[in-house]
Design a protein that fits this description.
This protein is an alpha/beta fold. About 35% of the residues lie in helices and about 20% in strands. The termini are far apart.
């Protein structure tokens, strides 16, 4: 009789919900038995009929382990009632009723069989990990269920998930909750020592765990590099424990060894990545040491590059990791962070779809006839920028066109590889000489670099070392990685029916094939170690790398850092062959950096121009469009916003305020820059090609021409630029911003006889008078000229007449004659 697990308590309810509903959500903590017991309990449900159960696991190791555990429960071996399918490995037969698969394989199967004709139940295990493939597989499954297979059942299982939110998105799907089998776990927090590297900090915490707790120890680390260094430190300390590594790139045998108790009863330390968080039971583990970090891939749509980033774990991830200590009995967890940090951890992990390269997903969607991915039901919608970048890549590879997926795009999907790599493999198949080279390149790019950066970046050197490995010769680098690479290369040769060769590699052949996969990473050396990529970015090789002697290269692996992109794997390109890759196009654009119009016929590889000729005859409509955009982007500095223009704008602004219903145009600078097509575009000519040409445009004349003849007359009448004063002088009016009154700055002698303050705009706006001395110094600021003559003038006269004796200072300003300069001889 099989062991009774917490999941058994809810199986009757779960069966009923699956009988009555198309979608059910199961919330079950680690140790409940949902992955290994539940599928077996559902095997004989009436609604399943003769169909099988397909269960998705996020990792290959988990898929193997879970299927093996279920097969063992049935006293069978994998491939009988329970089997699994993972990349490059399959254990299924005609009698298999439960198949455990990784998510990417399910999406591929849906392309081959859009009805999932032999599947009655799809189980999405560990859905909280929010794997991109799981999200997409669920989206496709929902489409199949809605359009073709209403009888298809979907069960979403998670240990830590916003089940209420997911349920609401899926039409209020019922949620069943199970208890877990979790023994008490003692929690310990230890602050990270900033003066030490992560492996040193973790090693010290492991040594503490060895002293304070009993049982085997599971240690969570971000990646293989930290695992390797931590293992070195612990083995140097002679702890008396056996130290194992556990990460995805290890062989199945090495992974299995880490999962099993030590044959000699020695205490075991397992250094693992996030691969050990779920769906695995590691025998003997009662202690967890968690560094608090994980490493995730993040795709940058702007650069088209993937990069691995190390991030702080979320709270749900930390809880799952800690739970591994309490699966088999009471346990202990050591966290390499403080309780304060624990309080501020993000609640749940970020969905991978938000940070992933979406080109493979989009190609699969096009295969389904889906052009707008936003029309599908998503738990998290894919970001628009990543969707755009993915479509651009597929278009460049001729995988899609305006009619949908192409024949070539369908061929790409037949290969279990990223569209880039599949495109390169198919290009290699077109040439007998390149056939096996493409297989080697694909395998090398899929694995970690077997040689490391100290051997330079040249991918051709790796190809040559792989050829030596096949001939049993001594090789530079990691022997075990060459084993894995050759296994994968052999798979591609078998798939593509390519013969294996061991001739010397042509470095330019490697480069040309690599360019098929990464056309936007073709690069031209600008100076020293710096290259300009076809996508417009810059990237650098390490100093003294032999590849820096090459004018043209193509980069395969790059890493974006604070100082720009660094190239880690690349191959040289033949300059003569490069010419055939250049495409001719017409480029008419505004160069903001140099402030000039570029109009030329170019031969270019992406943004790398290999030759050009100048175009002088530009269609006026196109010219207007480009120059208007230049003004929208840089109109502040391009145009001559002189004082005369500013005064015109302020005059019209005043009239707009005084007469809001008169239909005066918006002449504010912000509006004019945003809408150049409405006023300045007619004045562009083929000679308007540089920023200095913009400065020559008379904005006052241009703006005035926007007004009708009647408006021009009204402008001069209601908001004149100058005002005649009693001395017959035409004095300039200074119009102000923000509805401040216009200013009339005038020597007071020129206003003798003027009783009242001048007004404009049909008397709606009174001017602000700045009365000046004969030396043009301010004497008084007023809007009440009558009051000035009556009360203040006498004091001003007394103070200034001795300073300016040649000027007119009559006792009675009301009857005096206004004068421009010094007083007349006959005057007072």
């Amino acid at each position: 009789m099989s062991e009774r697990l917490p999941i058994h308590d809810v199986i009757p309810l779960l069966k009923q919900k699956l009988q009555d509903n198309a979608i059910v959500i199961l919330e079950a903590p680690p140790g409940a038995g949902k992955s290994t017991a539940l599928p077996l309990e559902l095997l004989h449900e009436e609604w399943l009929g003769n169909n099988k159960i397909v269960m998705l696991e996020p990792r290959r190791l988990a898929a193997r382990s879970v299927s093996a555990r279920m097969a063992q429960t049935l006293h069978e071996k994998p491939g009988d009632t329970v089997g699994y399918s993972i990349r490059f490995e399959k254990r299924v037969s005609a009698k298999t009723k439960i198949e455990v698969v990784t998510e990417g394989l399910l999406a591929r199967r849906m392309q081959d069989d859009e009805t999932l004709s032999d599947v009655g139940l799809l189980i999405f295990d560990e859905f909280h990990e929010r794997n991109l493939h799981a999200d997409f597989a669920l989206t496709l499954a929902l489409e199949i269920q809605k359009i073709i297979r209403p009888d298809l059942k979907i069960l979403i299982m998670s240990a830590t998930l916003d089940t209420a939110g997911i349920s609401a998105l899926l039409g209020n799907a019922p949620v069943v909750s199970s208890a877990g089998r979790q023994y008490p776990i003692a929690m310990n927090y230890a602050a990270e020592d900033d003066s030490k590297r992560l492996p040193e900090n973790v090693s010290n915490l492991v040594l503490r765990a060895i002293r304070e707790a009993t049982g085997d120890i599971l240690v969570f680390l971000p990646g293989a590099g930290e695992i390797s260094r931590t293992k070195e430190i612990l083995e140097e300390k002679n702890t008396g424990c056996i130290v194992h590594s556990l990460f995805g790139e290890l062989s199945f045998a090495e992974q299995e060894e880490a999962l099993q108790p030590n044959a000699h009863g020695l205490r075991k330390i397992v250094l693992a990545t996030s691969i050990a968080e779920t769906s695995l039971t590691i025998q003997g583990i009662s202690v967890v040491v968690d560094c608090g970090y994980s490493r995730i891939p993040k795709f940058d749509p702007e650069t088209g590059l993937d990069k691995l980033v190390t991030v702080r774990v979320s709270k749900d991830t930390a809880d799952q990791r800690a739970g591994r200590a309490g699966r088999l009995g009471p346990g202990t967890c050591y966290r390499m962070w403080t309780e304060t940090i624990q309080l501020h951890l993000q609640a749940s992990r970020r969905a991978e779809i938000l940070d992933a390269d979406l080109a493979p997903l989009l190609l699969s969607a096009f295969r389904w006839g889906i052009r707008d991915v936003n029309s599908l039901t998503w738990i998290t919608f894919p970001p628009a920028q990543a969707v755009t970048q993915g479509k651009e890549l597929l278009l460049a590879m001729n995988a899609i066109d305006e009619n949908g997926i192409t024949k070539h795009g369908r061929a790409l999907l037949e290969l279990p590889a990223h569209p880039r790599i599949a495109h390169m493999l198919l290009a290699g198949r077109e040439s007998v000489d390149y056939y096996d080279i493409a297989c080697d390149i694909a395998a090398l790019l899929d694995e970690r670099d077997p040689m490391g950066s100290n051997h330079g970046a040249d991918l051709t050197l790796r190809c040559e070392e792989l050829a030596k490995f096949r001939k049993k010769e001594r090789v530079q680098g990691d022997f075990r990685r060459y084993e894995r690479i050759e296994k994968l290369a052999s798979f591609w040769r078998f798939t593509l029916k390519a013969d294996r060769k061991n001739t010397k590699y042509d470095p330019y052949a490697v480069g040309m094939l690599l360019a098929k996969a990464y056309p936007e990473r073709i690069a031209f050396r600008q100076s020293g170690t710096t290259y300009r990529l076809a996508n417009g970015r810059k990237a650098s090789l390490a100093e003294h790398d032999p590849l820096t002697h090459e004018k043209w290269i193509v980069a395969a692996h790059l890493h974006m850092g604070q100082q720009g992109a660094k190239i880690f794997l690349a191959a040289p390109l033949d300059e003569c062959e490069i010419k055939h890759l250049a495409k001719e196009n017409i480029r008419v654009s505004w160069d903001e950096k140099n402030g000039e119009l570029i109009a030329r016929k170019e031969k270019a590889i992406g943004d790398i121009v290999t030759g050009f000729s100048v175009i002088t005859d530009i269609p006026q409509e196109q010219l207007n469009e480009i120059l208007c955009e230049a003004i929208r982007n840089d109109g502040e500095s391009l145009l001559d916003w002189n004082e005369e223009v500013i005064q015109l704008q302020r005059r019209i602004a005043l009239l707009s305020t005084a007469f809001p219903d008169a239909g005066w145009s918006d002449f504010t600078r912000a509006y004019l820059i945003e809408h150049p097509e409405k006023w300045i575009a007619p004045y562009f000519t083929p000679k308007t090609r540089k920023k200095d040409d913009f400065k020559k445009l008379n904005l006052v004349e241009i703006l005035t021409s926007v007004l009708s003849w009647e408006q021009q007359q009204e402008l001069n009448r209601l908001a004149p630029s100058r005002l005649e004063v009693p001395s017959a002088s035409m004095i300039k009016i200074e119009y102000q911003d923000h509805n401040a009154p216009p200013i009339l700055s005038v020597r007071l002698q020129e206003l003798f006889g003027m009783a009242d303050t001048p007004q404009i705009a049909n008397g709606k706006v009174k001017l602000m008078i700045h009365l000046l001395s004969p030396g043009y110094k301010p004497v008084q600021v007023t809007q009440d000229l009558r009051s000035f003559w009556n009360t203040t003038y006498a004091e001003v006269r007394k103070e200034l007449r001795s300073r300016y004796p040649k000027h007119s200072w009559p006792e009675d300003p009301w009857t005096a004659v206004a004068v421009r300069g010094i007083k007349r001889k006959s005057g007072s």
